[in-house]
Amino acid sequence: MYAPPLYRSEDVAQQHDLIEANPFGLITAVVDGRIHGTHIPFVLDRGPEPGDRGRLRAHLAKTNPLVSALAKGDEVMVAFLGPHSYICPDDYATEPHFPTWNYSAVHVYGRPRMLDDDAQRVQLDDLIAAEEARRLPKRPWTLDRAPSELVEQFRAAIVAFELPIAHMDGIFKYGQNKTAEDLDAQIAAFRSHPADHSARMADLLHTHNTAKLDTPTTPRTERPGR
């Protein structure tokens, strides 16, 4: 991953947080000399100790070309994309600026291992439970509520795997190179937008620049039109 030092993250917990908040990843591997990719949801198992990279678990259709790479234990990469947004020069307090894009992403690398039938069932249960937890206080749906014949039919068509995480790259580009007054202006602009993602981007701009924004600055006269 290309990540300038200012935006690069080595914080395993921060990377894990992004994966758990955005578990629909893109897994890629080389199959027969070509790069193949598939978008699938993942379960993250954090390591038992702080700083451990942990593992991912997921499943694929048996007919997916990536299954052959997984079965051989070839190295794969899984990419997770966090919140992202276009940044307009009109949303700065100063001039001049150029349009840019703020975003976060984590790339995970490792060699997969196939899971047996029992572990496959656990993977499905855990994946469903993680997503159902996002819908609380709704009564969680579980596989036990589905007809057993339907469950076995589905399970026969998939293969499950785990990916011990050998390495992770993280980038969190949220205006760290901007001044406090420009960040304040961007945060205010995002909070005024009606789009659902805008409030989240404003929160991220503040979170990633807390020390800078919490430092008192000399009040500045606003330019006309701002």
TrEMBL record:
Domain of life, per lineage: Bacteria
Name by which UniProt lists this protein: Transcriptional regulator
SUPFAM superfamilies in UniProt: FMN-binding split barrel
InterPro entries reported for this sequence: Split_barrel_FMN-bd, TR_PAI2-type
Annotated region described as Disordered, given as residue ranges: 207-226
PANTHER family linked to this entry: PROTEASE SYNTHASE AND SPORULATION PROTEIN PAI 2
